[in-house]
Design goal:
Number of helices of chain A: 19
CATH class of chain B: Alpha Beta
CATH class of the largest domain in chain A: Alpha Beta
Number of domains of chain A: 2
Number of strands of chain B: 8
Number of domains of chain B: 1
CATH architecture of the largest domain in chain A: 3-Layer(aba) Sandwich
Radius of gyration of chain A: 27 Å
Helix content of chain A: 55-70%
Order of helices and strands of chain B: EHEHEEHHHHEHHEHEHHEH
CATH topology of chain B: Rossmann fold
CATH superfamily of chain B: P-loop containing nucleotide triphosphate hydrolases
Oligomer: heterodimer
Strand content of chain B: 5-15%
CATH architecture of chain B: 3-Layer(aba) Sandwich
Largest sheet of chain B: 8 strands, mixed
Largest interface: A-B, 87 and 78 residues
Helix content of chain B: 40-55%
């Protein structure tokens, strides 16, 4: 598996995808910092990052636009940054409003949408809009061309399809063509649609209520002048995702469930013909050297070690007890390491030629620039270097 | 038994990857053992719970896993079919509607509709007088809630729909669902967190939002995966020295012990932070050093729930 900088060579966009709780935000920030260190002007788009990470990047008062991370802050960590690191926190509602303003043919149409009650609810509260807006912002920044590389930390979705499908679904909803047709029962289209449709509408009214249908029709009408613009844009957003200069990195953890999800995500990306770059597995327990013989030998060796130079004030019996605890703990760690190795082997087999980058389970949480640099020792190391570093740590 | 299980409906929520399913199943085992007829609901069609029970996929059926314990995977499309049939009462009319273009369009494209009908099914399961055929009466419904970007999204759906439809059947039914979710006497939530910096921050934010924006009762925060304190500071210092000077298995074992000690300590600092930052009582659950979380693991966790 090549290092992240080799995978991202010549790419404009890196999309970090995966389920929640696997360190996606941290990984995206680390990749952005690492690429900036190597001379690129990079912007990381993140969603709701943990406050301490945000603080460490100087993102405290950040709105819906990119802001440069103070180079002095980075230098204080002993990192020499040749490029520039920028970051922004995504605001789905503000992005949606901007998009409407851009697509509206005139102020009146714009205000009609922005003031619409249904719009106000779906633009912030409901599922799907966040995913779409993340991609919309990505598209906008890419079009502006201010950055060499954009790194997107995708919102956690319940499954991969929801995310990839978001632009299509949302545009489809806004389009509302069929409903607009049906709501004008005297129109030619309704006559073409036929009596069956009229009956269906009648039944629907019974379930949904006439008022809500009328409100929905008003919502779709407010959007009517912008539907083409929205559709064209969604198409361009989609083609940006499949562009060869875009790269999807799947982020996951080493347990069975996240690994299964990574396998599934990879399959969906391939099916959708989206450019897949590799998988990053976080928090991996590296297997240590195999035990020679059984655990008893290790315990004895440990006890001998403690006897040779006893921990101050620790009695013989306590030393044996400590040796036993250290050996038991080691056995627990080895079991986790073996599980991780097994799961990653399964993942690697599923991905065929494409590889896997493992980042070890570090002793400390990663939530500042120093921690990101620690992760980057692995992300940006060649395969040989990674093995060497891991052996050093094990 | 945790008093949380005296409620009729419990949402187990939290960010992805924190162990929600295991905690939901453990709560279910505990309640069932106490004689409560309990059902554990999954909502994202992932069948993680049936995986724990080592059961084949349960799908949209109420399947008995153990004495007093059932499981269901709530599929939004099936929930929608069931709901519309209950409204229209005539199967042929329902099928006609489902075949119509206008309905399939609205059902597929309306944002949040899947979440709404899922909560509708949860409501239905929690009814004492169930309208669906052969509907069993449950004492307790436990929901393994989906992990969403904003944890509140799912639970907020009824309120959002009630606001979108100002009047009419959707409005009143969405309000009914919202009343159920915010009924502090009968409905509770448990947040599952991990003892790390970001998950602690996120759990605190989630609790705040659940209380202020959704208005639900947050009864518990379970801090999951807490490492045991296996070594004292003095022992860890000595082991670090050994790790620096040795080779082979001794070194690796000493290194693993030092890692465990550091993790256990930083986790205790996170536990203290969590306790300071949330209002609900924080209960801890041990990290299980096992390769795969199976039913035995869930049983062991169930005993530790309080």
């Amino acid at each position: 598996m090549p290092a992240v900088d080799e995978i991202l060579a010549g790419k404009d966009i890196c999309i970090c995808a995966g389920s929640g709780g696997v360190g996606k935000t941290t990984t995206a920030a680390a990749i952005a910092a690492g690429m900036a260190e190597r001379g690129l002007k990079v912007c990381v788009l993140t969603i709701d990052p943990a406050k301490r990470l945000a603080d460490s990047l100087g993102l405290k008062e950040l709105g819906n636009e990119a802001k440069r991370v103070d180079p002095a802050l980075i230098e204080r960590q002993g990192i020499e940054m040749k490029g520039e690191l920028w970051a922004m926190m995504l605001d789905a509602k503000a992005t949606f409003d901007e998009l409407v303003a851009r697509q509206a043919p005139d102020e009146e149409s714009r205000d009609r949408v922005l003031g619409n009650r249904i719009y106000q609810q779906i633009s912030s509260a409901l599922a799907g809009s966040q995913e779409y807006m993340a991609m919309e912002k990505l598209f906008e920044l890419h079009t502006e061309g201010r950055f060499d590389l954009l790194v997107l930390d995708t919102p956690p979705t319940r499954n991969a399809l929801d995310f990839l499908d978001a632009p299509r679904r949302l545009t489809q909803f806004i389009e509302g063509r069929s409903l607009r047709v049906f709501m004008r029962p005297t129109g030619i289209a309704a006559r073409v649609a036929g009596r069956g449709a009229t009956v269906a509408l009648g039944v629907l009214k019974r379930i949904v209520g006439f008022d809500l249908l009328a409100d929905l029709a008003e919502f779709f009408n407010a959007f009517s002048g912008m539907v083409d613009g929205f559709q064209a844009r969604a198409k361009r957003v989609n083609s940006l995702l499949s562009d060869p200069h875009t790269c999807f990195l799947v982020v996951c953890g080493p347990q069975g469930e996240p690994i299964d999800e990574a396998v599934y995500f990879h399959r969906k990306l391939v099916e959708a013909k989206l450019p897949f770059g590799g998988v990053i597995v976080n928090k991996v327990h590296y297997p240590a050297e195999r035990l020679r013989g059984d655990g008893g030998d290790l315990e004895a060796a440990l006890a001998e070690k403690f006897d040779a130079s006893p921990p101050s004030g620790v009695e013989q019996a306590a030393r044996e007890d400590l040796a036993a605890r250290v050996a038991a703990n080691f056995a627990d760690y080895q079991a986790l390491a073996e599980r991780d190795a097994r799961n990653i082997e399964h993942l690697a087999a599923e991905l065929r030629s494409k590889g896997v980058i493992r980042v070890p389970y570090l002793d400390e949480d990663v939530h500042d620039l120093g921690g990101l640099a620690e992760i980057n020792r692995y992300l940006f190391a060649s395969a040989d270097e990674r093995v060497a570093i891991a052996a050093g740590r094990a | 038994m945790p008093d949380l299980l005296d409620k009729r409906l419990v949402f187990v929520t939290g960010k992805g990857g924190v162990g929600k399913t295991t905690v939901a199943v453990a709560l279910g085992l505990r309640a069932a053992a106490a004689g409560k007829r309990t059902i554990v609901c999954e909502v994202s069609s992932q069948e993680n719970a049936s995986r724990i029970f080592d059961h084949t996929e349960v799908g949209f059926h109420e399947v008995e896993m153990e004495e007093n314990l059932w499981s269901i995977s709530i599929d939004p499309d099936e929930s929608m079919r069931e709901y519309v049939l209950l409204q229209l009462k005539v199967r042929a009319m329902r099928d006609m509607l489902f075949r119509s273009r206008i309905f399939t369009y609205l059902a597929a494209a309306t944002p949040g509709l899947k979440e709404l009908v899922t909560i509708g099914k949860i409501w239905e399961l929690a009814q004492l007088d169930r309208k669906v055929k052969r509907g069993r009466k449950y004492d307790l419904v436990i929901v393994d809630a989906p992990a969403t970007g904003h944890g509140i999204g799912f639970l907020q759906t009824p309120r959002t729909f009630a606001a979108i439809a100002r009047v009419g059947p959707i409005h009143s039914q969405a309000q009914e669902l919202d009343r159920l979710i915010t009924d502090h006497e009968h409905t509770g939530t448990a947040i599952v967190a991990l003892p790390e910096e970001m998950p602690v921050n996120e759990s605190a934010a989630l609790e705040r939002e659940l209380r202020s924006e959704v208005g639900v009762a947050v009864d518990r925060v379970y801090l999951n995966g807490l490492y045991p304190e296996r070594f004292s500071n003095a022992e860890a210092e000595r082991l670090a020295e050994i790790a620096a000077g040795e080779n082979g298995a001794v070194r690796a074992a000493a290194r693993a012990a030092v890692s465990e000690h550091r993790r256990a300590r930083s986790q205790r600092a996170q536990l203290a932070r969590l306790r300071r930052r949330v209002e609900a009582p924080v209960k801890t659950l041990p990290f299980l050093f096992e390769p795969d979380l199976d039913l035995e693991a869930a049983r062991r966790l169930a005993k530790r729930l309080h």
